[in-house]
Write a structure and sequence with these properties.
Blueprint lengths: L32 H11 L3 H14 L4 H13 L3 H14 L4 H13 L3 H14 L4 H13 L3 H15 L5 H13 L3 H14 L4 H10 L8 H19 L19 E6 L8 H13 L3 E6 L6 H9 L2 E4 L5 H10 L4 E4 L9 H5 L5 E4 L14 E4 L15 E4 L27 E4 L8 H13 L4 E5 L6 H13 L7 E4 L5 H6 L6 E3 L8 H8 L4 E4 L8 H8 L6 E2 L2 H13 L1 H16 L6 H18 L1
Parallel strand pairs: 1-2, 1-4, 2-3, 4-5, 5-6, 6-7, 8-9, 8-11, 9-10, 11-12, 12-13
Length: 614
């Protein structure tokens, strides 16, 4: 075993040492010497000592509402939600109409996933303190977490209206993120650009703008890369350290067991989880120790599969980036894989502190992170062909046979049945709303024009709320799609029901410029071929990678006209389409896309490469 790495340094100077990125310990900061002392301890990364100090104060004043509420917040910071609930309830009992006490109870309830209670407490909170932005922000987060994205955006708008001209950046950032998920990219981009004008060093605005660039067909790969590079520079300034980070890494003794870790908010029934499980298994197959850091709140049957694989499973949800980085560093990890890139809930501030000597970005993001503390990025020769190295700060590691390995759900229903003689042709897309760009809708309109008897089935969370479905219908109508031939379906209750919906689809239509990933794999699993349009960025080449891996490059178009032609050719040859439906699942399961042996061998090779640097 290696020697212990020693105590972590104090938090770096600058904004990073402040409150965690999630819910903050108190709605309003209490005053007094006890609070001043404990706040100083928290700022120094000594949260456990701060908790002990507040507990000592409560021993003398057990009914004190401020101490109870403050302790609840500190306990939430360290992931102790059940204890936090006890103290938050005591605070509200002592002072039921105090916004700080109600906020403490709201936060503990939300952390325990009691979302109906949390929504009610959030509404109560904004009524008690209509001029405090945090109430609107946290209520919107809860609504978002239960899939009410349109309602969450409306809460943000209520807050912005109530606050007048003084709206904090955090509420604007959340509003922009929600608008993005509702497909309103232009408005989201306008909010972020305005925020960048008023706060040019705001790293979160730069990160969101960079992530938005992946969805814009009018932005070149070079301009998107520049946006990511800018976000990375602001991130380095924000955490106050260079690419080497703030930690010292002890030398590994020869022959010692190597140690890899995955960090992600999506170690659950999520699109990332379908590809992260094979990565976790590959690390174990290579003989390495595996630690999982879950930065999210979800815990389900897929999470149980991750836990069964791991030598250690550590929840860091609610911790500050610095506190979470200290937990990673304390595990003496040799290689740290982050799986979320610049998506919501990402851990780029943690990665910038460099808690592991070798850091890798993989699976969950279709571009460079812009973060120079990350050493490598896993891709393949189709998504990132030779010559694309200048579009990223990480060193590209190309995996043969594809950069992903898909883990199909064990309970997948049978593939779609044979086509009935009189069955009308149905095209389909189950991709997320934010991927339905105007260019995508224009492509679909051309396909439907070329196939006048065909219908289009669109399914997703955006249809579940009235605001989202109305906006989608309007966007489709504006693009000239025949609305009488389009059916929009809400999300289904579980994965099996979702997959059965593919029984209604004959041909899948991919999005552009941000391709589907899990949706394409699911379509192939259910026997449905997918037509994709390849572009110049990783995001616009994922479909090409997946189809190449299953031996169907003929479904990859290189121009809008070819995209329409491929769809028309498939639709006009029912015998060919029937054969594809019958054989496609077997073809997928026999391909490199699901070959965990192939993938494990590739991961073993790259781990050996990383070992030379660690």
């Amino acid at each position: 075993m290696s020697p212990p790495p020693g105590p972590p340094p104090g938090p770096p100077p600058g904004p990073q040492s402040g409150p965690p990125s999630g819910r903050t310990p108190a709605f309003t900061a209490p005053g007094g010497s006890v609070f001043d002392q404990t706040h100083a301890l928290v700022q120094a990364g000594k949260t456990a000592e701060a908790i002990a100090r507040v507990r000592a104060g409560l021993a003398r004043r057990p009914s004190d509402p401020e101490l109870n509420a403050y302790l609840a917040g500190l306990l939430l910071r360290t992931g102790q939600a059940q204890q936090a609930l006890f103290y938050a309830q005591a605070a509200v009992k002592a002072r039921p109409d105090d916004p700080a006490c109600v906020f403490a109870l709201f936060s503990a309830t939300a952390a325990l996933r009691r979302m109906d209670d949390a929504k009610a407490l959030g509404e109560r909170l904004v009524k008690l303190a209509p001029d405090n932005p945090q109430g609107y922000q946290e209520l919107a987060r809860v609504l978002d977490e239960v899939g009410k994205v349109d309602q969450a955006a409306e809460v943000c708008e209520r807050g912005i209206t109530a606050l007048g001209g003084v709206v904090p950046a955090s509420l604007q950032l959340l509003h922009a993120a929600l608008l993005h998920r509702l497909g309103n990219h232009e408005r989201a981009r306008a909010i972020l650009r305005t925020l960048q004008t008023t706060e040019p060093t705001n790293v979160d605005a730069a990160v969101q703008l960079a992530a938005l660039s992946n969805y814009d067909a009018g932005i070149t790969p070079e301009h998107s890369a520049a946006a990511h590079f800018r976000a990375g520079m602001l991130l380095a300034d924000h955490v106050g350290c260079g690419p080497a980070g703030i930690f010292k890494h002890a030398a590994r003794k020869p022959g010692a067991l190597r140690h890899a870790a995955l960090i992600s908010p999506d170690l659950a029934a999520h699109s990332v989880g379908s590809f992260a499980l094979p990565l976790a298994r590959a690390i174990k197959a290579a003989g390495w120790r595996l630690t999982l850091f879950n930065t999210g709140q979800r815990d389900d049957e897929v999470t149980a599969q991750f836990k069964a694989l791991a030598d250690a499973y550590i929840v860091t949800a609610g911790l500050s980036s610095y506190d979470a980085a200290c937990k990673v560093h304390a595990q003496s990890v040799d290689v740290l894989f982050e799986l979320s890139g610049l998506t919501e809930g990402n851990c780029q501030k943690l990665m910038a502190l460099k808690p592991a000597p070798v850091q890798v970005t993989a699976i969950g993001y279709p571009a460079t992170t812009g973060n120079r503390a990350i050493d490598y990025r896993l891709v393949d020769a189709v998504t990132d062909p030779p010559g694309s190295e200048g579009l990223c700060v990480e060193q590209l590691v190309r995996l043969d046979g594809g950069f992903l390995c898909y883990h199909p759900p064990l309970s997948a229903p049978e593939p779609r049945p044979p086509i009935a003689e009189d069955e009308p042709l149905v095209l389909g897309s189950f991709n997320s709303y934010q991927k339905l760009s105007r260019l995508t809708l224009d492509l679909w309109a051309q396909v439907l024009e070329a196939l006048p008897q065909a219908k289009l089935l669109v399914k997703g969370a955006m249809v579940s709320g009235r605001t989202g479905s109305d906006r989608l219908a309007q966007a489709m109508a504006d693009a000239g799609l025949p609305m009488d031939r389009i059916e929009m379906l809400e999300t289904t209750r579980d994965r099996s029901e979702h997959l059965k919906m593919y029984h209604r689809v004959h041909i899948g239509l991919d999005t552009y410029p941000y391709h589907g990933t899990t949706t394409t794999c699911e379509a192939l699993l259910m026997g449905v071929p997918v037509v994709t349009l390849a572009g110049g960025s990783h995001a616009a080449r994922v479909g090409a990678s997946l189809l190449s891996a299953v031996g169907m490059p003929e479904l990859v178009a290189h121009s809008p006209a070819q995209y329409v032609q491929i769809a028309r050719d498939l639709a006009s040859d029912r015998a060919r389409l029937q054969g594809i439906h019958r054989e496609l699942r077997g073809r997928l399961l026999g391909s490199s896309l699901t070959d965990e042996g192939r993938y494990a061998a590739q991961i073993a090779q790259v781990l050996a490469k990383f070992t030379q640097k660690a």
